[in-house]
Design a protein that fits this description.
Layout: H1 8-15, H2 56-63, H3 85-99, E1 110-113, E2 144-149, H4 153-163, E3 168-169, E4 175-177, E5 190-193, H5 196-201, E6 212-213, H6 215-231, E7 234-242, E8 250-256, H7 259-268, H8 274-278, E9 285-290, E10 307-311, E11 316-320, H9 326-342, E12 346-348, E13 350-354, E14 360-364, H10 371-375, E15 381-384, E16 388-391, E17 394-397, E18 401-405, H11 415-420, E19 426-428, E20 431-432, E21 439-440, E22 451-455, E23 467-468, E24 471-478, E25 488-491, H12 493-502, E26 504-507, E27 519-522, H13 535-549, E28 552-557, E29 560-561, E30 569-570, H14 573-585, E31 593-595, E32 602-604, H15 624-642, H16 654-662
Helix pairs in contact: 4-7, 12-13, 12-16
Bound molecules: adenosine-5'-diphosphate, phosphoenolpyruvate, calcium ion and manganese (II) ion (MN).
Phosphoenolpyruvate binds next to α9 and α10.
Length: 667
């Protein structure tokens, strides 16, 4: 607490102990917050019946009603497989103990379910049935670790506020917290175990995001994370799902040290119903998040104190040295980029929404290009903002929540995201008023990459379950810092493939560690950091699906207009929204087009609600020569980047590969 002047309530409670609170001595009348209460009521305490408790402890136990078990015993229909609650709890403890087992010891840690600060409330131990809460020996073989299993947001708030410095309830009701030194992802610290299977399946070498590590080093880091987690008083365990397609649902377990991480994943993954949790069984994949603890830099393959390690054979991911929560959700996304294509399902780094008539649009783009902003559209159903699958049955969201950038967020421009920031939402690295706890979204003192993570149903028109039919429009978002790409162009299939494989944008400051200024970047499939196989594998699937379902590709520049970064300005969000509206409605498909030089892009001459002169970027530049030079410069960067793909075939069709090459800029 600081020493600021007390607020109105404090003054009243002080004053109520003195005669002047009655207002009978001619002193000024005290204003209270309770306007319904008459002044004469103040000293009387006979309005309600007394509580049915004789002690404070009794009163507290009255307050907490026993909730339905998270694993309810089935009714008459399912009676044959009813397991008593006690047995089920025992199985749960054993399962989590197995997750946390050090592989060098024979058994897992001794676990107790519940909050260590609330002893005796329904606790369960792993392999000692009678547990004496007085044990406090700091020997790892004897020590007990409490685990907090699938806590509710309210419980996680209490945990965070009690024990995690920098956690506050914002005035909107959201939980504001800090991710520590890392406020963005660390792609250079990502490692993937290279073994017999991944050797052939994965994309390795130049340009690949998969920096290799050996199995042994993975185990060294795993042991480090597990030992760290077991050394704590308590850990958080989330058992949840990925993918709204019931046939391809993945069970994930997240073990973490921070309530913030547990709430983040509660929001971002699909939340199981009590019935689904009952049958959860063994997870398909486990994350060990020991982000507060660094990796050992003397360990082979480690180049910093941060390491994010994926072992596909073991179905595990270890996080050391970063508390940025996005690392977990994007780590799981990488896993899906491996698992889904093996089932002939395309994984997509895209947002997705659907119109009233069932027309689905995908929004591909790198961080900060507008996937979340543009898929959240008050006139359409939101299927998801970031990670999807496209199967034979249509599209499905991988996640159960959204993760919006909130720098400069305003209620006027993005009302749905603004209103989603309420109780239950995690607000990462925002700055708030020390007294009112009001967030200043303009303030980037902690980072440019401030974030809000909320369950998808916090968006009023979310489509639950988050699935939809085959997409009609494939929108490729590029935030062009050079200011030479048109605000919108219609793409041929070959052009769509060319731009999908190129994955051009200007990386906006913040989301990746170390990027302070916008900078031109190419990221295959608009998500090179997450793909696991060669980009052409995903491109071939996209091309095949687009042809089969007759989808149209579009390139939308959400970046600069009227000059490059520094002289031009970012295209108004309102204009981009009108452009997107025209794509959805179908009106843009049949508009008049002209072809640009160099990039050979088809640009419309008119769009309702958008000034026609901005549609051709040359009009917005005062210095036409500078425009031409910049266009050529960017075209050169595209060609240089695409060079590495020229020897690859895309799918079975070699003519398409030639067409794709020809669909790039020419000058
Ligand atoms: N014309 C525009 N189109 C889309 N986003 C814009 C535009 N102008 C500014 N922005 C801002 O850019 C950011 C886009 O971020 P976001 O939608 O979270 O991207 P992504 O989900 O692709 O990482 C938001 O902060 C948004 O307000
Ligand atoms: C969470 C992320 O996603 P995006 O910026 O694409 O929303 C990220 O890239 O760290
Ligand atoms: Ca991203
Ligand atoms: Mn996003």
């Amino acid at each position: 607490m600081d020493s600021k002047a007390p607020d109105g309530n404090a003054e009243f409670s002080f004053a109520s102990n003195t005669p002047r609170s009655t207002g009978r001595k001619g002193l000024p009348k005290i204003q209270t917050q309770d306007h319904n209460k008459k002044a004469s009521d103040v000293c009387h305490d006979d309005s309600g019946t007394p509580v049915k408790a004789t002690t404070i402890d009794e009163l507290h136990s009255l307050q907490r009603k026993k909730s339905a078990p998270t694993t309810p015993i089935k009714g008459s229909q399912g009676a044959f497989n009813a397991i008593p609650e006690e047995e089920r709890q025992k199985q749960q403890v054993q399962s989590i103990s197995a997750s946390l087992a050090s592989l060098m010891r024979e058994t897992g840690p001794k676990l107790v379910k519940g909050d260590p600060s609330r002893k005796g409330e329904g606790q369960q131990i792993s392999h000692h049935h009678h547990y004496t809460p007085t044990i406090s020996i700091s020997d790892s073989a004897l020590k007990l670790t409490h685990y907090l299993y699938n806590l509710s947001p309210a419980e996680l708030y209490e945990q965070a506020i009690k024990t995690e410095k920098g956690s506050f309830i914002a005035s909107s009701g959201a939980l504001a917290t800090l991710s520590g030194a890392k406020t963005g992802r660390s792609p250079r610290d990502k490692r993937v175990v290279r073994d017999e299977t991944t050797e052939d399946d994965l994309w390795w070498g130049k340009g690949s995001p998969n920096i290799e590590m050996d199995e042994h080093t993975f185990m060294v880091n795993r042991e480090r994370a597990v030992d760290y987690l077991n050394s704590l008083d308590k850990v958080f365990v989330n058992d949840q799902f990925l993918n709204w397609d019931p046939e391809n649902r993945i069970k994930v377990r997240i073990v973490s040290a921070r309530a913030y991480h547990s709430l983040f994943m509660h929001n971002m993954c699909i939340r199981p119903t009590p019935e689904e949790l009952e049958d959860f069984g063994t997870p398909d994949f486990t994350i060990y998040n020991a982000g507060q603890f660094p990796c050992n830099r003397y360990t082979h393959h480690m180049t910093s104190s941060t390491s994010i390690d994926i072992n596909l054979a073991r179905k595990e991911m270890v996080i050391l040295g970063t508390q940025y929560a996005g690392e977990m959700k994007k780590g799981l996304f990488g896993l899906m980029h491996y698992l889904m294509p093996k089932r002939q399902i395309l994984s997509l780094h895209s947002g997705c929404n659907m119109g009233k008539d069932g027309d689905v649009a995908l929004f591909f783009g790198l961080s900060g290009t507008g996937k979340t902003t543009l898929s959240t559209d008050h006139n359409r159903y939101l299927i998801g903002d970031d990670e999807h699958c496209w199967s034979e049955n249509g599209v499905s969201n991988i996640e159960g929540g959204c993760y919006a950038k909130c720098i400069d967020l305003s209620r006027e421009k993005e009302p749905d995201i603004w209103n989603a920031i309420k109780f239950g939402t995690v607000l990462e690295n925002v700055v708030l008023d020390e007294h009112t706890r009001e967030v200043d979204y303009m303030d980037s003192s902690v980072t440019e990459n401030t974030r809000a993570a909320y369950p998808i149903d916090y968006i009023p028109n979310a489509k639950i379950p988050c699935v939809g039919p085959h997409p009609k429009n494939i929108i490729l978002l590029a935030c062009d810092a050079f200011g030479v790409l048109p605000p919108v162009s219609k793409l041929s299939l070959a052009q769509t493939m060319y731009h999908f494989i190129s994955g051009y944008t200007a990386l906006v400051a913040g989301t990746e560690d170390g990027i302070k200024e916008p900078q031109a970047t190419f990221s295959a499939c608009f998500g090179a950091a997450f793909i696991m196989m060669h980009p052409t594998r995903y491109a071939a699937m996209l091309s095949e699906k687009m042809q089969k379902h007759g989808a149209t590709g579009w390139l939308v520049n959400t970046g600069w207009s009227g000059g490059s970064y520094g002289s031009g300005k970012r295209i108004k969000l309102a204009y981009t929204r009108r452009i997107i509206d025209a794509i959805h409605s179908g009106s843009l498909l049949n508009a008049n087009y002209k072809k640009t030089e160099v990039f050979g892009l088809e640009i419309p001459t008119e769009i309702e609600g958008v000034p026609s002169e901005i549609l051709d970027p040359v009009n917005t530049w005062t210095d036409k020569n500078a425009y031409k030079d910049t266009q050529l410069k960017l075209a050169g960067l595209f060609q240089k980047n695409f060079g590495v793909f020229t020897n690859y075939k895309i799918g079975k069709n070699s003519t398409l590969a030639e067409e794709i090459l020809a669909a790039g800029p020419s000058y």
